[in-house]
């Protein structure tokens, strides 16, 4: 599977312990900064296909799914804790000379197993 780099955001725009979601060449991508390091992961929890953004939390080298609290290591995507879900897909990331973050995603379109489930918004009274 071939990959290509795509420009997504200025590095300075990603605050510490924050996450930002993007669709990059149709792939759901999450860019995270924790302890000064940038990470790019798939924006889809392997437990129930929930999106991490906008309500996921970044803490101590991990990201927590807002749906059920599953935690995954940013460094390698592996699940932490007693439950052993599949690891998150990680994407290569680099910063160019102008400060842009570029993420390498597959050139092929993602399959349904890579896309987060869209949950309906609750009715507002």
Structure overview:
0% of the residues lie in helices and 41% in strands. The chain is mostly beta strands and 125 residues long. Strands 5-6-7-8 form a four-stranded antiparallel sheet, with no helix packed on it. Strands 1-10-9 form a three-stranded antiparallel sheet, with no helix packed on it. Strands 2-3-4 form a three-stranded antiparallel sheet, with no helix packed on it.
Number of beta strands: 10
Helix content: under 10%
Number of helices: 0
Low-confidence stretches: 120-125
Rg measurement, Å:
14 Å
- What structural class do the secondary elements suggest? mainly beta
Net shape: globular
Report, as a whole number of angstroms, the end-to-end distance: 48 Å
Order of helices and strands: EEEEEEEEEE
Mean pLDDT: 91
The fraction of residues in strands falls at 35-45%
Major sheet description: 4 strands, antiparallel
> How are the strands of the largest sheet arranged?
5-6-7-8
